[in-house]
C-alpha cells in the first residue's frame, strides 16, 4: 500500500510538472499529441501527428509522457488533445472494470463510458492488438518443452522474474495472473525499467519477463512468448483517444484520424518497432516511410 501511495504521488507530480506549462493556444502547436514512455508509443504518436499535419492545416506539438495514468489525467485536464491507448488498459486500469475477453464488447463499453464520464472520443482501432507477453528464453522453452503459461507454472519456483512497475500494480497485471496460473517464483519479482528488461533476461539476471506482443526484440533475440492458454489478458487494441472539444473545434481532425483505422497489422507494428530499436532508425523517418507505403503521404 505504501509503495502504491508513493507511486501515486510521484505520478501525480509528473502529470503536473510535465503538462502544467502547456496551453493549446501556445506557440507549440494547435494540437498536442502525447506518447507513453516506450518505442511503440513514440511511433504511434508520430504517425498520428504526421497524419494530422498532412491532412489538415494544423500544427502538432509532440509530447512525451510516461504512463496511461499520466496521459489520461493530462487529456481530461485539457493539457493534451490526443494519444494512442490500448482498449484493455483503459478498460481495466482507468475504468477499473473486470476483465472481458470480447474485443467488441470492451470497445463499446469503453466508447460509451469515455464519452459520458470524460467527454472523450474513443476512435476505431488502428488494426492491431498489443497484448501483454510473458516471455522466457528460447533455450529454456526448448529444454523444458514449454509453450504455455500453465506449463511454465511448474518451473517458476526455481525461476526469477523481472516485471515493469505498472504490470506489478495494475488490475490486469501480475497479481491476477499469478492467481490464475499459480505462478510462484524463487524470490519476489524484480521491479524493472522496461528499457532494461530484455537485457536482464539475456544476461540471465531473470528467467521470465513481461513485454508486449509487438516488441521487435522478441524474435530478434530468440525469445519465446508463452501462450495465455487460460485467456487471462483482455483485448488490447491500439486506439486513438481524442478530446471531443478538440474535435468540435477542428472538425477536419476526425476524418484525418479515421484514415488510420485498420492501417497497421501486428506484424507491421513489430517490424516498425524493430526498425527503431534494432536498427536505430529515426522515428520520424520510419513513420514517414510507412505512411508513403500505405498511400497516406
Question: What is this structure, in a nutshell?
Answer:
It contains 15 helices and ten strands.
Overall description:
With 297 residues, the protein is an alpha/beta fold. The chain has 2 domains: 2-129 and 235-293, D-Maltodextrin-Binding Protein, domain 2, CATH 3.40.190.10; 132-226, D-Maltodextrin-Binding Protein, domain 2 (3-Layer(aba) Sandwich), CATH 3.40.190. The protein is 46% helix and 15% strand. It is built from 15 helices and 10 strands. It has helices at 2-19, 39-55, 68-76, 87-94, 103-118, 138-144, 149-152, 165-169, 174-181, 197-202, 217-220, 244-249, 252-258, 266-277, 283-293; strands at 31-35, 60-64, 82-86, 120-122, 132-137, 161-164, 190-192, 208-212, 223-226, 238-243. Strands 2-1-3-10-4 form a 5-stranded mixed sheet, sandwiched between helices. Strands 7-6-8-5-9 form a 5-stranded mixed sheet. Strand 1, helix 2 (39-55) and strand 2 (60-64) form a beta-alpha-beta unit. The termini are far apart. The model is unreliable at 1-27 (pLDDT under 50).
Amino acid at each position: 500500500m505504501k509503495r502504491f501511495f508513493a507511486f501515486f504521488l510521484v505520478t501525480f507530480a509528473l502529470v503536473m510538472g510535465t503538462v502544467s506549462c502547456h496551453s493549446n493556444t501556445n506557440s507549440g502547436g494547435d494540437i498536442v499529441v502525447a506518447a507513453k514512455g516506450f518505442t511503440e508509443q513514440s511511433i504511434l504518436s508520430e504517425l498520428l501527428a504526421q497524419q494530422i499535419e498532412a491532412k489538415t492545416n494544423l500544427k502538432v506539438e509532440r509530447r512525451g509522457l510516461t504512463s496511461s495514468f499520466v496521459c489520461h489525467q493530462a487529456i481530461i485536464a485539457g493539457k493534451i488533445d490526443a494519444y494512442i491507448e490500448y482498449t484493455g488498459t483503459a478498460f481495466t486500469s482507468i475504468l477499473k472494470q473486470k476483465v472481458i475477453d470480447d474485443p467488441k464488447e470492451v470497445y463499446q463499453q469503453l466508447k460509451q463510458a469515455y464519452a459520458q464520464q470524460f467527454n472523450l472520443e474513443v476512435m476505431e482501432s488502428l488494426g492491431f492488438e498489443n497484448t501483454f507477453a510473458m516471455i522466457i528464453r528460447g533455450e529454456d522453452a526448448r529444454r523444458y518443452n514449454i509453450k504455455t503459461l500453465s506449463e511454465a507454472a511448474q518451473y517458476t519456483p526455481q525461476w526469477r522474474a523481472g516485471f515493469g512497475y505498472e504490470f506489478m500494480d495494475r488490475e490486469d497485471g501480475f497479481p491476477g495472473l499469478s492467481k490464475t496460473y499459480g505462478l510462484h517464483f524463487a524470490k519476489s519479482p524484480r521491479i524493472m525499467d522496461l528499457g532494461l528488461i530484455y537485457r536482464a533476461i539475456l544476461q540471465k539476471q531473470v528467467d521470465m519477463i513481461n513485454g508486449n506482443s509487438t516488441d521487435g526484440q522478441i524474435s530478434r533475440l530468440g525469445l519465446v512468448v508463452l501462450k495465455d492458454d487460460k485467456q487471462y489478458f483482455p483485448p488490447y487494441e491500439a486506439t486513438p483517444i481524442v478530446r471531443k472539444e478538440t474535435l468540435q473545434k477542428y472538425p477536419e481532425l476526425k476524418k484525418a484520424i479515421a484514415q488510420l483505422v485498420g492501417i497497421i497489422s501486428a506484424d507491421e507494428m513489430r517490424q516498425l518497432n524493430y526498425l527503431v530499436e534494432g536498427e536505430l532508425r529515426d522515428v520520424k523517418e520510419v513513420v514517414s516511410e510507412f505512411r508513403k507505403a500505405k498511400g497516406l503521404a
